[in-house]
TrEMBL record:
Domain Antitoxin Xre/MbcA/ParS-like toxin-binding: 97-146
Sequence ranges assigned to domain Antitoxin Xre-like helix-turn-helix in this UniProt record: 31-90
InterPro entries on file: Antitox_Xre, Xre-like_HTH, Xre/MbcA/ParS-like_toxin-bd
Organism the protein comes from: Candidatus Regiella insecticola 5.15
Highest taxon listed in the record's lineage: Bacteria
Organismal lineage: Bacteria, Pseudomonadati, Pseudomonadota, Gammaproteobacteria, Enterobacterales
NCBIfam families hit by this protein: TAS_TIGR02293
GO function term, MF aspect, one: DNA binding
Pfam families reported for this sequence: Xre-like-HTH, Xre_MbcA_ParS_C
Protein name according to UniProt: Putative toxin-antitoxin system antitoxin component, TIGR02293 family
């Protein structure tokens, strides 16, 4: 069995292109102001498209009832708390896509299926609160840096000289 750990490198082009594709600032004062003012509804449709999700499906994950979603479409903007959940979803989607080296379908499948490192919960179910989203992002960070690979190697004896 091959337990090689790949080197992780941040791809700045991918980082910029993702945030442009969803129509959302990635960091800084502009993001902060956008969240306070409310994300434009167009961000929602772009985010669903990039994620490969139906609009109703994304609404379920970011906990926005259909009637509210229809009102936001008419207004053209989300409220601050809804915008924050949209941003959290985008952040988790971006991180999972990076984890799978740009493979959007593998990232999507990972988000939609139960994950052992999250207590058997699906990552998309953990967007509603910042604490849960942070747990997902922390797990992705550990996976990117090979923490679970090293724990597994230790468990099977490779790092104790038994392998």
């Amino acid at each position: 069995m091959d337990y090689a750990i790949k080197e992780y490198r941040v791809n700045c082009d991918t980082n910029t292109s993702f945030w442009k594709a969803v129509g959302m600032p990635s960091r800084g004062a502009k993001l902060h102001q956008t969240l306070r003012d409310g994300m434009p509804y167009t961000v929602y449709t772009k985010l669903a498209s990039v994620a490969g999700l139906e609009l109703k499906e994304l609404a379920k994950y970011i906990i926005i009832p259909q009637a509210t979603l229809q009102r936001r479409a008419k207004l053209g903007r989300f409220k601050m708390d809804e915008s924050d959940r949209l941003y959290r979803f985008a952040e988790v989607l971006k991180a999972s896509t990076d984890l799978f080296e740009g493979d959007k379908e593998r990232a999507r499948q990972w988000l939609l299926n139960p994950v052992r490192g999250l207590g058997g919960r699906r990552p998309v179910e953990m967007i509603a609160t910042s604490a849960e989203a942070t747990a997902v992002l922390d797990l992705i960070g550990r996976l990117e840096h090979g923490i679970f690979a090293w724990v597994r190697l230790l468990h099977i004896g490779w790092l104790r000289g038994n392998g």
